[in-house]
Recover the amino acids of this structure.
């Protein structure tokens, strides 16, 4: 399963690189703030939080700067001071459970899905530890309806969970009814 942990690491890297690029190369200049910093410096020393910003890209898509103190897609985005700490602990426990599951699973589809969930959870946990909130920046909209802003980690988690549910519903082997009645 180490190969699948590499997928988790790549998910974390894609998430953190995308957050750095959007915040430092797009949002900071749009807010007319001082020059951006390099990726490794950004990782090592969390810069000051940026205020909300919106950069239109397509008629249905913006890059935004949103600080999410809740979970994926802004759920439970309360302002309690202890919220990020509790969510970090819960995410850490769930991630450990997924890592354990990854080492037990035999199916490649499930392993890929679990690796995506692990990488996504850890990518968002890094933000929560560094900033007390998660950077969300992808804003899709139709007319005046905006889907909650999200990031690469959120996407990895959703895709991973979808694959796990799809696999469980359509491909997981269950004992036949005749076998269970004979027991």
């Amino acid at each position: 399963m180490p190969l699948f942990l590499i997928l988790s690491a790549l998910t974390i890297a894609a998430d953190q690189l995308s957050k750095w690029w959007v915040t430092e190369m797009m949002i900071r200049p749009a807010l007319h703030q001082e020059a951006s910093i390099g990726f490794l410096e950004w990782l090592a020393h969390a810069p000051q939080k940026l205020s909300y910003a919106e950069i239109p890209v397509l008629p249905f898509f913006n890059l935004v700067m949103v600080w999410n103190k809740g979970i994926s897609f802004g759920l439970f985005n309360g302002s309690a001071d202890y919220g990020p700490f509790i969510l970090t602990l819960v995410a850490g426990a769930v991630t450990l459970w997924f890592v354990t599951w990854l080492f037990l699973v035999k199916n490649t589809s499930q392993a890929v899905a679990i690796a995506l969930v692990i990488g996504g959870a850890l990518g968002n946990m890094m933000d929560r530890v560094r900033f007390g909130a998660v950077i969300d920046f992808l804003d899709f909209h139709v007319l005046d309806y905006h889907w909650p802003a999200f990031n690469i980690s959120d996407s990895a988690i959703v895709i991973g969970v979808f694959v796990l549910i799809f696999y469980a519903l359509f491909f997981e082997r269950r004992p036949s009814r005749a076998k269970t009645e004979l027991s």
Observations:
- The longest helix spans residues 2-30.
